[in-house]
Structure formats: C-alpha cells, structure tokens
Design a protein that fits this description.
By secondary structure, the chain is an all-alpha fold. It is built from 37 helices and no strands. It is flat, with a radius of gyration of 34 Å.
Length: about 575
C-alpha cells in the first residue's frame, strides 16, 4: 500500500501513518493493535483509498501471515465492520476478496469469524448473484478442506435473493458438500442444513433437503450424526405436520437407538424440543418408550441428560402414562450409581408434583424426595432444596411438615455449608407459604441458630434471612420472635456472636420502623464500648446504617457523642469507621 499523502494536514495524518506502518511491523502485537484500528485508518483514508489501497493490502497481509492467527482473527472481525467505510452497500463487494482469503485458513476460529463477516456483507450486497455466488462456487469446489468447510454456512444468507437458476446451482453445490469425502466438511454441511431448509420454499425441502438430511443422519461418523439431531427440530418446524411424521420421525427413532452414546446423549438433551415437532399421539406412544430407553441407557451421561427432561416431558403426556411408564424409571434413577444422574433428577423432580397431583406426590414422589434429601452427594441435596416450594404449593404445609420438613431441619445442620446456605435462601419463600404460626412452631429456632454458624457466609445470609422474614410477617412479629433473641446474643461471651448480633440489629432497624429503634439502639451503643476493636468498628457501621432512621434528638443525644468518642480510639480501623459514620450523621 502506498504511503499516506502527508502534504496536507501533516499533524492530523501523522497518527494514521503510524497505524499504517504498524500493519507492516514485525511485532505481532503492534500489527494486532493496528488491525483493531482499521475503522480509524479507513476514516482517514476515505472510501476510495480504502477500497483501492487498504483492502487489497489487507488481502495481501492475510495471504502472507498464515501463522499469525490472532491478527487474522481480528482482521476477520474488523472487515465485517468496514461496509460503510468502503462506500456503503454498492461497494461492499470489495470486502469479499480478503474474507475469501481468510476462509481458507486452517484455524477454525479465523474461518468462523470470516464466515460471520461474510454473512454481514452478503446481507447488504445489491447484486449477490454477480458477486457472492461466484465466491460460493470457488469455496464450495475448492481443493482445500477449509474452504469447503467455510462454504457450508454461507448458502442460506443469499439464497432468496438470487435467480431460480442460481438457486438450483446452490442446492447442487450444497448437496456435494453433504456427500464430501471429508467428515469435517459433511459435519459443517449438516450444521448448516437447517438454516438452508428455512430458506428453501415449497417442495424443495421435501424433495431435495430431506433426502440429504436422512443420509447425513446415517453417516458413518458420529460427529456428523450428532449434528443431525438439531436438524430434526429445524425440519420438524419447516415441514408440514404430516411430512414431519413421515420424514423426520423415522430419523428420530433411529438416532434414539444409535450405537454411539454421544448421539443418544444429544437426543436426550434435545428430547423436549423433539417432542414439540411431533404429534400428540407420537409423543404419548413412541416418544414415551424412547425416553424410557434413554433413562435406562448403559451410559451415565445419557441417563443424566434424559433425567433432566422428565418433568417437562411428563407435562406433555397423560398422567396415567407418566405414572405407569416414566415413574418406575424415576425410582431407579433416584438410586442410580452415578451422582450426576441423581443430581439431574433432583433438579427436576419437584416439577413433577404439579403434573401428578397431590395424592400421587405424597404417595409416590415424597419417599423419593426424602431419599435425595439424604443423598451423599451435596449437589443432589441442593437441587431438591432449591425447588422445595413447588412441592409445598401442591401438597400444602401440613403434609410438607409431616413428610419433608424433618429432613429439611436436619439439613439445616448439614456438614456442607453450601447446603445450609441453600436452606436459608429458601426459608422466606417457604415462610410466606406456611404462615407465621406454622413457621414459629417449626422453623423459627433454626433461623436464630444460624446466626451462630461457624461460617461467615452463613451468618451473613442468616441476617438477611431475618430481614426478609420481618418483611413477610411484619415488625410486630419480629419484636416478639426475633429481637429478644438477637439482643441476648449481643451480650454473648464470644465476640463473633456479638458482631453478628450488632449487624443483625442494624439490618432489622431498616424494616421494623422508628418506634422499635429505642429497643435496638442501646445494644449497639453498648457494642461501641466493647473491649474488642472489631466489635467497636462494627458498631460504628451499624450506627451509620441506622442514621437515616433516627430522629435528630437521638442523634444529638446519644449517637454523635458515642461516635465522637470513638474518633479518638487507639485502633485505626475504629477511628476510620467512626469518622465515616459521623460524616453520615452530619449530612
């Protein structure tokens, strides 16, 4: 590329000349920096010089720097953003040349980014048939595997904007990619087949695309068959219902029984989406038996994926079918040797409660839930806890208290602190469903006990939990059931308990109302004189939190004098937080 003309506006153009020079720099990082500024360079050069000098130079760079993947990746991305800077849509075709070069790179990330930019350019080309189709032809029939791989996802974007003759040629080229000798090319074609099917109108899908789909679904390479699962969903949405049953369902049935566990895993992972394109009769019949087989699969990964779909699937079939065919598998999975299978089941089992109803939940599901609540793997326990409110909504608090709450109470002291944390986080929702009286009888003591937990995160969560419970049940409830216990803790011999109590009192102060602060404030002021510095500066933090709630008389008579005294404390942290609280009180 020729040197930038510096005759006019030397000072303004000097930085641009530096950027252009850095495109040729031996240092990869300098070239990368300059490539990231291509828009700045093109703005300085103007559209004409960008088309005639910068773009050809970038193409030359792409050809010469095959080993500089980081620079090429940045270039592929930036070229897609230069449409306006080469003169708009009418001149966007000049960007096709360097992007075509980048599509030939071995590095998949570079190719993918080049394809992404090519699709952006193709969207605005006014004459796609003259400029874009020849590029497709060169890529799709190229000698290198990389160009044919890159070609596959480029067909759909311009398909509807070319003549019928060009469409026919494009379908033929795509068909050849689907039959390519190289598995990676066939995989790329299979990945792109769904997108092309959406653009092909009329009988073209049934006559030309569907046979390619069926052939790819039987490919000898499981990496190709895996991708075919996605196409089942896409074609099922594109084809009429009767054609879906005839053309797509046999492929789904075949993939469900594939010899490769990776393919079966993909079917299990997409099972709900596959059901959405099937008729209700097919779902209740063969898809139910198909899920049962996947739930009994020899590979734990397949069972894990299938277990995660049981709740959504059972919502699509009659309750009788769910109870007679799926539930026996669920019983087996609840005792599966794989902890991942049990955890996946635990994450969705609560969703079965609304599907099967109250009686069946109590009789069939609750025993399984109890087993998973006591699972040796903490993730299974966590997944059950996180959905506990769903069961309560179905069976009611009385049945929940008799069946699951004893296990929940036991988990409140679980050795894994994350399990204890999960219990705390779901208490407010359970409390709102149960009511104050029921909560006081069953769970109130547990919530206070968490304030003395050995893990700080649990103590912090317990404080927030009490705040949320006060918001649910009201300030009067907190005065009777929470505040006295916290005040008692504020005088505990262990300074960590005293800190937690002071913090809790400050948090409660924001929700109990001004009339209750007279009960809370003395304990916090007492903590300001605690022999332990950590207690004193936490008292300063608590007082700062309460400042917006306090009346001027209380501030002047009690709070400011206490904070002023602490500004002369021996401990620097105490002095810092005391000064910070005083500033808040003066605001």
């Amino acid at each position: 590329m020729g040197d930038v003309d510096m005759a006019e506006g030397d000072d303004a153009m000097a930085p641009i000349k530096i950027l252009i020079d850095e495109l040729r720099n031996d240092d990869c990082q300098q070239r990368l920096k300059s490539v990231r500024r291509l828009i700045t360079i093109s703005n300085a050069l103007g559209p004409e010089r960008t088309r005639e000098e910068l773009v050809p130079y970038l193409n030359e760079m792409a050809s010469e720097m095959e080993d500089e993947d980081e620079v090429l990746l940045a270039m592929a991305e930036e070229l897609g953003n230069l449409i306006e800077h080469v003169g708009g849509n009418d001149h966007a075709h000049v960007l096709l040349v360097p992007l075509e070069t980048l599509c030939a790179m071995e590095e998949a990330l570079v190719r993918d980014k080049a394809v992404e930019s090519l699709n952006k350019v193709a969207q605005v080309l006014p004459n796609a048939e003259e400029t874009y189709v020849p590029l497709l032809r060169r890529l799709a029939t190229g000698d290198y595997n990389s160009t044919r791989i890159a070609a596959a996802p480029l067909f759909a974007i311009a398909y509807k904007r070319v003549s019928e003759g060009a469409k026919t040629e494009m379908r033929q080229m795509f068909s050849q990619l689907c039959k390519d000798d190289i598995p990676m090319v066939r995989k790329a074609a299979c990945s792109a087949l769904g997108g092309l099917a959406k653009e092909v109108s009329g009988g073209g899908v049934e006559e030309e695309v569907a046979p390619l789909f069926a052939k790819l679904a039987q490919d000898e390479q499981d990496s190709v068959r895996i991708v075919a699962v996605d196409n089942c969903v896409t074609l099922g949405k594109v084809l009429p219902a009767d054609k879906t049953q005839h053309l797509v369902f046999p492929v789904i049935r075949q993939l469900q029984q594939d010899k490769s566990w990776r393919v079966r895993y993909m079917v299990a992972d997409h099972f709900t989406e596959l059901c959405e394109v099937m008729s209700a009769e097919a779902v209740e019949g063969e898809m139910t038996s198909g899920l049962v087989k996947l739930l009994k699969d020899a590979e734990a990964e397949v069972r894990t994926a299938a277990a995660a779909k049981v709740a959504d699937f059972c919502a699509k079939i009659p309750v009788e079918a769910a109870l007679s065919q799926v539930l026996p598998c669920i019983r087996d999975l609840a005792a599966d040797p794989s902890q991942h299978v049990r955890a996946a089941l635990a994450s969705v089992m609560m969703g079965l409660a609304p599907v099967v109803g109250k009686r069946q939940t109590i009789e069939q599901l609750v025993p399984l839930l109890l087993g998973l609540l006591k699972d040796e793997h903490h993730e299974a326990r966590l997944n059950i806890i996180s959905k506990l409110h769903a069961v309560n909504a179905v069976i009611g608090p009385d049945a929940l208290a008799q069946s699951l709450l004893p296990a929940v109470t036991e988990l409140a002291e679980d050795r894994q602190w994350r399990v204890r944390l999960a219990i705390i986080q779901h208490i407010p929702l359970l409390a709102s469903q149960m009511g104050a009286k029921f909560f006081e009888e069953r769970l109130s003591k547990m919530c206070i006990a968490w304030l003395a937990d050995s893990v700080y995160t649990i103590r912090e969560a317990a404080t927030d939990n009490l705040k949320q419970l006060t918001e649910v049940f009201g300030a009067e409830w907190a005065k009777v059931n929470v505040v006295p216990q916290v005040l008692e803790m504020s005088a505990h011999s262990n300074y960590l308990y005293r800190i937690t109590a002071v913090t809790t009192l400050a948090v409660l102060g924001s929700v109990v109302g001004r009339e209750s602060l007279d009960v809370l404030l003395p304990a916090i002021l007492s903590a300001a004189k605690d022999p332990v510095p950590n207690c004193r500066f936490n008292a300063c933090k608590a007082l700062q939190m309460l400042v917006p709630q306090l009346e001027a008389k209380t501030l002047d008579g009690a709070v400011r004098p206490a904070l002023t005294a602490l500004t002369a404390d021996d401990d620097p942290d105490v002095k810092f937080f005391a000064a910070k609280a005083l500033n808040a009180a003066a605001a």
